[in-house]
Every structure is written in structure tokens, then in C-alpha cells.
Design a protein that fits this description.
The chain is α/β, with parallel strands linked by helices and 251 residues long. Helices cover 29% and strands 18% of the residues. The protein is built from seven helices and eleven strands. The relative contact order is 0.19. The protein binds 2-amino-2-deoxy-6-O-phosphono-alpha-D-glucopyranose.
Length: 251
């Protein structure tokens, strides 16, 4: 595990966007796993600006998003599909057919989950997976007590997640309570993982995910078992780490 600590949110966003650009530069056909939420917004902005400056070409990449709310149409402004187009895909040269996001309104949702998993498998897996983290330690929408063996599946959202995500909706009642998400096993099969976190409200979760027991109670703790994972944090999110007490690689 590597930990990179940047001074603030903007520096964290720039660092992650540069690492993504570097990956795509060396492997134009990169299969990228993408995350939503507030944390990656700055990073997406940076990627668009690298594209505008002709420093990165997205033509050959393929993307798979981690998750989508159940019951939201892809044109709904609160859907992750809308978020991704609005913040990244509409501004870069990725071919539409190379974009994969689970369908929150699929008629057969169980089949949608299996097909999504198979599509990832058929393309040869995810090269670089970007993750955020929920305050309860969820990655994707894999909530506490999830099975580590889970593949893409339908999940029930935790009360804390519903509360946290209600800021994007007009009222609590509008926040979906289910989602379709890559499973922990899907995520763990990615060749490289970058987890980004910013802000003091994530500091306890980050500390426990890195130093604590590996337990489904804190889904991100499973990343301790991944051979190539990098945490990219701002100072606030890293503020509860005691970096002298670990044998973690520091970059
Ligand atoms: C959502 C997403 C996660 C994301 C998390 C944290 O629940 N499904 O993938 O990591 O929110 O969001 P934020 O970055 O807004 O704190």
C-alpha cells in the first residue's frame, strides 16, 4: 500500500488526474474504473483541462462506473449516469460505446448485474480503478457487512449513506434506498486501485481502513489485501494517520 498526502483538495485532484493521464499515455487502451460523489469532481475537471490542452487522448479508453442508483433514469440529474456525462464524458473524446454505467432502470436488474460483471471480465478486467470512500467505509456502494466475495449486485443503502447523499436531492424521501454496484470482489480484481479522500470528516474512516482489522464492517479495509493500492489524501483526511507507526510505503 502506498499513501500520498497532498496539501489540499486541489493538489489531491491534480495528483490523481496526472496519474490517470500517465496510465493512459503508456496504455492508450486503458480500462478505467470510475467513481462518483463529491470527491472526484476536481479530478474530473483536471482531466477535462488536460484534454483541452491536448495532453491526453481518451479515444481508446473504456470506462466502467462503480455504481448507479436503482430506479433513476439515466437522464435524471441525480443519476450517476447524468453526473458522469455532465462532469466528464461530454467534454472529452471517449466514444459513447466505450462508456459503461450500470442501468438503474433495467427491467431485469439481476441480469443487468451479471451482464455488467461479464462485460468487465470479457474486456480483460479493470486496469485502474478510482475509488472514493463513504464515511462508513463503503467503496462503490458496498455498505458495511457486505460479503467480500460479492460481484456486481443490487445493494440496500445504509442509513448513513442515505443521509450523506440526501444533500444532492431536494428531500430525504427522494434519495433511493437501493443501488446496483460492483462488488468487493469486482473491485479487488482491478490491477491497480487509487482511493481518494479529502476532508476531516473522512479522517477516522481512513485511519481505520489502513490500520484497523480487515473486516466487512469496514468494507475499505479489504484494500489492505490488494497488491497495488494507493491512497491519495489531502492533509485533513490523513490527519489521524500515525505514519511513524506503520511499515507502509510512503511516496
Ligand atoms: C457515494 C458513491 C461512492 C463514493 C461516496 C463518497 O455513495 N457511491 O462511490 O465514494 O459516495 O462520496 P463523497 O465523495 O461525496 O464523500
Amino acid at each position: 500500500m502506498r499513501i500520498i498526502i497532498e496539501a489540499n483538495y486541489d493538489e489531491m485532484s491534480k495528483k490523481v488526474s496526472k496519474l490517470i493521464a500517465k496510465h493512459i499515455f503508456y496504455k492508450p487502451r486503458t480500462v478505467l474504473g470510475l467513481a462518483t460523489g463529491e470527491t472526484p469532481l476536481g479530478m474530473y475537471k483536471e482531466l477535462v483541462s488536460l484534454y483541452d490542452s491536448d495532453l491526453i487522448d481518451f479515444h481508446d479508453i473504456t470506462t466502467f462506473n462503480l455504481d448507479e442508483y436503482l430506479g433513476l433514469d439515466k437522464d435524471n440529474p441525480q443519476s450517476y449516469n447524468y453526473y458522469m456525462h455532465n462532469n466528464l464524458f461530454n467534454h472529452i473524446n471517449i466514444p459513447k460505446d466505450n462508456i459503461n454505467i450500470p442501468l438503474g432502470l433495467a427491467t431485469d436488474i439481476a441480469k443487468e448485474a451479471i451482464d455488467y460483471e461479464l462485460k468487465i471480465r470479457r474486456i480483460g478486467g479493470i486496469d485502474l480503478q478510482i475509488l472514493g470512500i463513504g464515511r462508513n467505509g463503503h467503496i462503490g456502494f458496498n455498505e458495511p457487512d457486505i460479503k467480500f466475495e460479492a460481484l456486481t449486485h443490487v445493494v440496500k443503502l445504509d442509513n448513513q449513506t442515505i443521509e450523506d447523499n440526501s444533500r444532492f436531492f431536494d428531500s430525504m424521501d427522494e434519495v433511493p434506498n437501493q443501488a446496483i454496484s460492483m462488488g468487493i470482489k469486482t473491485i479487488m480484481r482491478a490491477k491497480k486501485i487509487i482511493l481518494m479522500a479529502s476532508g476531516i470528516e473522512k479522517a477516522d474512516t481512513i485511519r481505520d481502513s489502513i490500520y484497523g482489522n480487515i473486516t466487512p464492517t469496514l468494507p475499505a479495509s479489504v484494500l489492505q489485501l490488494h497488491p497495488n493500492v494507493t491512497y491519495i489524501l489531502d492533509k485533513a483526511a490523513a490527519s489521524k494517520l500515525d505514519l511513524h507507526k506503520t511499515n507502509i510505503d510512503l511516496l
